[in-house]
Design goal:
Distance between the termini: 109 Å
Oligomer: single chain
Order of helices and strands: HEEEEEE
Strand order of the largest sheet: 4-3-2-5
Radius of gyration: 32 Å
Largest sheet: 4 strands, antiparallel
Number of strands: 6
Strand content: 15-25%
Length: about 150
């Protein structure tokens, strides 16, 4: 057995190795946890919410299109007609805008329901070529569709 000032100490390498192993495993697990947290918000929460919003926008656009076609169907040759309708005030807790008119990429008129980067384009059911429509509204309050034979 060796003697001397450095050979009488108890070996501490195993304690240091255990601590370094614990720190390395903890660091890897924390990095994976951070990555998972960043992905959960986009894939589990925002994706389905955006799908619900798009489907709701499509339903609202189809409803507005149907109401416009109904007004067109009973529109008088001379005179005017006005109808009031209601659409949902908010979709997933936030407002939206409904625009009627021509889209830049299409010769037909359409209805665009949008909020920020989400939007849905719905064709104006068959009357876009014969009658011009224009205007915009939001979901808040009561909405009006007006027709005047002499134009506005």
């Amino acid at each position: 057995m060796r003697t001397g000032p450095y050979h009488n100490r108890i070996p501490n390498e195993s304690a240091v190795a255990n601590m370094i192993e614990f720190l390395m495993i903890s660091a890897v697990l924390m990095a994976l946890f951070i990555v998972i947290l960043l992905l959960v918000n986009t894939n589990i929460m925002e994706g389905p919410a955006n799908r619900v919003i798009y489907v709701s926008f499509t339903d609202i656009g189809n409803g507005v299109s149907t109401r416009i076609v109904d007004v067109y169907a009973i529109a008088p040759n001379e005179g005017d007609i006005t109808t009031h309708f209601d659409i949902p005030d908010e979709i997933v807790g936030r407002g939206y805008v409904v625009d009627l008119g021509s889209s830049p990429n299409s010769a037909d008129q359409d209805i665009t329901v949008s909020r920020n980067y989400l939007n849905a384009h719905i064709a104006l059911a068959g009357i876009g070529v014969s009658k011009g429509v224009s205007g915009s509204t939001t979901g808040a309050g009561m909405n009006i569709i007006s027709y005047n034979s002499s134009g506005f």
